[in-house]
Amino acid sequence: MWRRNSAHTIEVHLFIRGLDVNTEAKEGVVLVTGGSGYVGGWMIVGLLKRGFKVRTTVRDIAREASVRAAVTSQGVSGDGPTFCVADLSADKGWADAVSGCDFVVHVASPMGEGEPKGTDLLGPARDGTLRVLSAAVEAGVKRVVVTSSLAAALPARPGEEAVASDGAVWTDVNGKGVSDYARSKTLAERAAWEFIQQSNGATTLTTILPGMIMGPVMKRSISGSVGVVARLLAGKVPAIPNVGFNIVDVRDLVELHIEAMLAPQAAGQRFLASSDFLWLGDIARLLRENLGDHAAKVTSRRLPDFILRITALFQADARFMVSMIGRRPRFNTALASTLLDWHPRPASVAVLDCARSLLKAGLVPGSAPES
């Protein structure tokens, strides 16, 4: 049970894993960018369950129906989100999107895993973030919470991984082996902080740096991280490379965003968001040991490092993983724990809940939906 006492809170909110009880609605309108995405969808659900009025952006209004259906599937009653069209690559629509909002949670961003070589990730990430911030400051929004990534707080050299990175650490964008994704997230977040420092307005900024985001799905479309579990279950991964991930459950990530949005002490802070580190081999073993016949296609075969390096020469997914071979970066999430009382689920729970929801929804290729 968590008890929250915030200047913005008008009720005692009880949270028990998977159960939200609101005795009275909150005041405030929150804009969630990228509502059709994995994190964006869960963010909408979390905010609505906490009693906020939610507005969300989509690039195409045709996505409204699927987002509404997903939100409704999570037992959210009453008015759902309202929708507006805005794209990170253009100015149009952002002023209207933020108008009248108290808070902005900026989730939308290009992912980068598996993108063709030469794909521009920096432009949409940095310029899109600045568009959102500019509109928010102009509209007098109280706080913007930007979703960054642990990829923006990587230790400079492999030998430094024995010491956990924290909010004071920034990825060296010119470092050897730094991926385009890590570079884009780092430069986008730096640009956000510089913009806020120069704006001299009332709008405050907080950034959240999550690891690999797992947990249950609620839509037919799935994210790249969730897709890793789906591919393992479908037998689409013939051998396991020597790579691993710092994992955070999407439900815990939503809670952290909301607390960072509300807490006065969160202004100006970078919060790292991760639970446990799991090697991809650990994830495969979890699936085999807990899902019975549903995990019959999950391989235990290991992929030699040199094969991954060769494959990376012509395959985008492999190229993304090369810099991760054998690396186990450590991250210090104590700030989120001490300032916001944030305590995430174990990574194993996030992975297994993800797998079970994929199976139930029929999102594993070659598997029928569970009854």
TrEMBL record:
InterPro entries: Epimerase_deHydtase, NAD(P)-bd_dom_sf, NAD(P)_dehydrat-like
Stretches assigned to the NAD-dependent epimerase/dehydratase domain: 30-267
UniProt keywords, alphabetically: Oxidoreductase
Signal peptide: none
The family this protein is said to belong to: Belongs to the NAD(P)-dependent epimerase/dehydratase family. Dihydroflavonol-4-reductase subfamily.
PANTHER family: NAD DEPENDENT EPIMERASE/DEHYDRATASE, STEROL-4-ALPHA-CARBOXYLATE 3-DEHYDROGENASE, DECARBOXYLATING
Name of the protein this chain belongs to: NAD-dependent epimerase/dehydratase family protein
Species: Paraburkholderia acidicola
